[in-house]
Amino acid sequence: MERETMNLEAMMSAIGNVNLKDVLHDCRPMFVVHKNGRVQRFMGTDEVPPSVDSITGVESKDVVIDLETGVYVRVYKPENVGKVGVLVYIHGGAFCVETASSPVYQNCLNKLSFKANMVVVSVNYRTAPEYPLPVRYEDSWAAFKWVFKTNHDEPWLREHLDLTRVYMVGDRAGANIVHNLAKRVNKQGDATYPLEGIVLVHPYFWGKKRIGSEEKRVKLLGFSSLMDKVWMVACPDSSGLDDPRLNPKMDHEQGELGTDKVLVSIAELDTLRDKGYYYKDLLLKSGWKGHVRLIETFGENHVFHLFNPDSPKAADLMNQIVEFLNS
User: Which InterPro entries does the record cross-reference, listed alphabetically (predicted)?
Assistant: First the structure.
């Protein structure tokens, strides 16, 4: 926990001075919203273009799927690929930061596409607070449906897609979105959008009542209300922290998933760790008939694999996800 506190203190000091008199919402170290409406982000703003990865040979390109909204996906194709599965990836960032063009995701998804031998469709949804929820859910749903487009106009999907092997994977807020979209798949019917499985990496679930070690962790971090504030900024019309989209306990449709395979990944030092355990337990008690597996990385923090991708533990997490995808 000392390591976690030091990391956050360093991030806060790197931000520099912010005139709080001009700030409407202080969600540092991620972003602030000024009273004039300007959003100032402190992370997740770097972007890289699509490319051919020199290490894996994976090629990527951007495809706009909605001209009106500008929503696009970054598609990754392994080298010398035939008919393979497709993985719809939804990035994290508390609904408010990061993009599908972020360097951390370019690096991660090049590796994931290569190791799993799958086409990856990474969704660049519109972010809050400029676009409040449920925009992120709707943009991600549009991208998921786009994968199943009849007579696909995207050649990489038309030529290589195996519709019997479609997965959704997300980290942080992206994992939250994946869970909620899997319920939507169920309502559409399995035959419409067959979903083989979902992977939730360090999922962003929260609630009014602290569970497990959450109270101790948020107090130690020094900004116990950060996750509370971020949700309300991202979703100002929400009923609050017990919104069923955020709090698994209040989600009476939790077990109504359009898949029978779920993998949940948590990290020992992550403030969101206990909600990941809670999610698994609630899913098993919901009447859902599928199989859920939970894996925990000890001694590591929130999305460590994105920021230290060459570490042995990041490689182990990647291998376990690939094993799940190819099982």
Answer: AB_hydrolase_3 (IPR013094), AB_hydrolase_fold (IPR029058), Carboxylest/Gibb_receptor (IPR050466)
